[in-house]
Amino acid sequence: MSKSQTTTIISLLLIVAGAGLLYWGYDMSESVGGQLNQAFNGSQSNDVTMAYIGGAVALLAGLYIQFKK
Q: In this predicted structure, what is the pLDDT of residue 43?
């Protein structure tokens, strides 16, 4: 496997993982528990925030690797 193919596979995996984490964070924030937590505490849980941050970083890293060629 050449370096170009390996880089493409890694970038696509990062993009898929990032999109998955972003969706998972959104799903957690829209759940009943997430809504109650936000109503009583006024903010999202740390799990939701970490899923959003991790997803955004992975997605952006994957896009950067994919399109820097």
A: 72
The answer as to whether 35 is a domain residue is yes
Q: Is position 1 within any domain? A: no
- CB-based contacts of 14: which residues, under 8 Å, 6+ apart? 58, 59, 61, 62, 65
With CA atoms as reference, report the closest residue to 22 among 56, 46, 62, 47: 56
Domain extent at residue 26 = 11-67
Kindly report the pTM of this predicted structure. Answer: 0.82
The residue type of 59 is: L
pLDDT of residue 35 exceeding 70 = yes
